[in-house]
Amino acid sequence: MSSPSLPDIGIPSLAVRPPAARLGVAVVSQLVDVIVTGVLAPGDLLPPEVPLTNQFGVSRTVIRESVKRLEEKGLVTVSQGRGTTVNPSSEWNLLDPVVLGAMIEHDDSLGILDELSAVRAGLETSMAGDAARQADSQAVGELRDSLQRMRDTIDDPAAFRQADIDFHALVMRISGSRLASSIARTLFHRALESSRYHGRDPEHAFELTLDEHTAVLDAIAAADPTAAEDAMKAHIEGSWQRRRLPVRGRDADA
Fold it and tell me: For the chain, N or C: smaller number of CB within 10 Å?
């Protein structure tokens, strides 16, 4: 497939130029957006270096480094003599912060956030069960203190949300599952950057959240892995469904 012209792929010029050290970051971000939104589809060729340098107003070195970053993220494949080909989404590194952030930002259907919430629920469900197996009296005491901070800040939305995040982080730490914890945190932190993920707070949202966290704590304190898993799964899935904004067309009749 031949390379599309620059006007066709809609890459905006860098009207406000960042500092030199950040030029490559800006170029990568815009090229990621072009690929994630499907303006450049799988199998399409990225425009050659010279047109890209003219479009962005940067050096060929910056373009080469930017394309290298895209390749590291799994978005493109660079082939000698053929050019740079856009890869299918199955090859993208979806845990890369820039890729995941762009997918969330441009996903009007909320499908990627649905997937993210399901994966997060799976990971944290497993870790809640591990926490119930691992927790000693000190760990349970730390969880009780964390839950109390949620109770104490229920009238302060920002403080309550931070206490909520801290509670989940503590459960993950107690579980001892370092890899699962790292993946869950990556997903969660990227999601928090999106207003779509925050959605809407239904009536008594914080009270419901507090009740659900209490169920998680009670199960861990009782050393009941199955109950801990069930409570965490119900909390994460239920919380997302309560916050989730309706999608025009798909959810109109729901």
Answer: C
Give the domain CATH number at 230.
Answer: 1.20.120.530
- Mark whether 161 and 84 lie in a shared domain: no
**Whole-prediction pTM:** 0.80
Rg (alpha carbons) of the chain, rounded to whole number: 22
Structure token pair of residue 57: 């107003």
Q: Where does a domain end: 24, 57, 91? A: 91
- Parent domain of 198: 107-243
How many residues in total does the chain contain? 254
H/E run at residue 83? strand 83-86
Is 86 in the same domain as 115? no
Task: Please provide the distance, in angstroms rounded to a whole number, between the alpha carbons at the two ends of the chain.
Answer: 42
Residues 78 and 152 in one domain: no
> Is residue 82 within 8 Å of 153, Cβ to Cβ?
no
Spatial distance between the Cα atoms of 103 and 97, rounded to a whole number of angstroms: 10
Nearest Cα neighbor of 95 from 189, 193, 187 is 187
- The CA distance from 245 to 254, in Å, is 12
Q: Look-up: residue for tokens 């999608």?
A: 247
* Residues 213 and 121 occupy one common structural domain: yes
162 near 170, Cβ under 8 Å? no
State how many domains the chain has. Answer: 2
Token representation of residue 161: 């949300």
The tens digit of pLDDT for each residue in 155-177 reads 999 999 999 999 999 999 999 99
